[in-house]
Design a protein that fits this description.
Layout: H1 3-37, H2 40-54, E1 57-69, E2 71-72, E3 77-82, E4 87-88, E5 95-101, E6 110-116, E7 119-123, E8 131-134, E9 137-140, E10 147-153, E11 160-165, E12 171-172, E13 180-190, E14 199-205, E15 208-209
Parallel strand pairs: 1-14, 1-15
Antiparallel strand pairs: 1-13, 2-12, 3-11, 4-13, 5-10, 5-13, 6-7, 6-11, 8-9
Length: about 210
């Protein structure tokens, strides 16, 4: 076959193919553009971000053991916890246990008050807890006249907990009995619009020393 004829046929073929490709490219570009603009992923992400910005709830879960040391004058107090800007929430999820000086009849020489300072209310910590078990054997958890164990549920919507010396004497927490308070609380707080969502979990040990 004549080489010049073959070259001419190839040139015609390439020209037709190029024309088809050039005509097809704009259509492909339009289709790609439409697909990107209609992508449900982008729309969902925008909607989710807007919803999160409208209503942000932060959570606090804390369990803290507070040894009591030093002396506390009659009528004076120790601030045990301050959750601000959180308040306790979810009924039954926040508790306080304390081993503190007590009278011969098992009544405590201290009182726990809770609320949002400066508005506080007395918390009923119940009676001294005596009956317990250790390896199946009976165990007395309170030593009336020395130190007794108490346990109570914390009310909702509080941010402050304090211990008040309601006896008529100065209490010396170093005399024995190893007094301490343990607080376990679940709190929530609504933050400003647009604030990042955070979940804070804390387990600390803090020594509260009376003045």
């Amino acid at each position: 076959m004549n080489p010049s004829k073959i070259f001419k046929e190839l040139s015609v073929g390439f020209s037709i193919s190029s024309a088809i490709i050039l005509l097809t490219l704009p259509a492909m570009e339009d289709a790609y553009t439409q697909t990107m603009s209609m992508s449900p992923t982008n729309n969902n992400s925008n909607n989710t971000a807007q919803q999160h910005a409208e209503h942000i709830i932060d959570n606090l879960v804390i369990s803290e053991h507070i040894p009591l040391t030093g002396q506390l004058a009659s009528g004076d107090y120790i601030l045990l916890m301050d959750f601000t800007p959180f308040v306790t929430s979810i009924e039954g999820h926040s508790h306080i246990a304390l081993k503190v000086p007590c009278n011969e009849d098992g009544t405590p020489k201290v009182t726990i008050v809770t609320g949002i300072a400066p508005n506080l209310n007395t918390l009923n910590i119940g009676n001294a807890i005596n009956n317990g078990t250790l390896d199946g054997n009976s165990l007395d958890l309170s030593d009336e006249g020395n130190s007794c164990l108490y346990h109570a549920e914390l009310p909702n919507n509080i941010s402050d907990i304090a211990l008040v010396n309601t006896s008529n004497q100065t209490l010396n927490f170093n005399e024995g009995g190893y007094p301490s308070v343990t607080v376990s609380a679940h709190g929530t707080a609504i933050q400003h619009i647009g604030a990042p969502t955070t979940t804070t979990t804390m387990t600390n040990q803090t020594s509260a020393t009376a003045p």
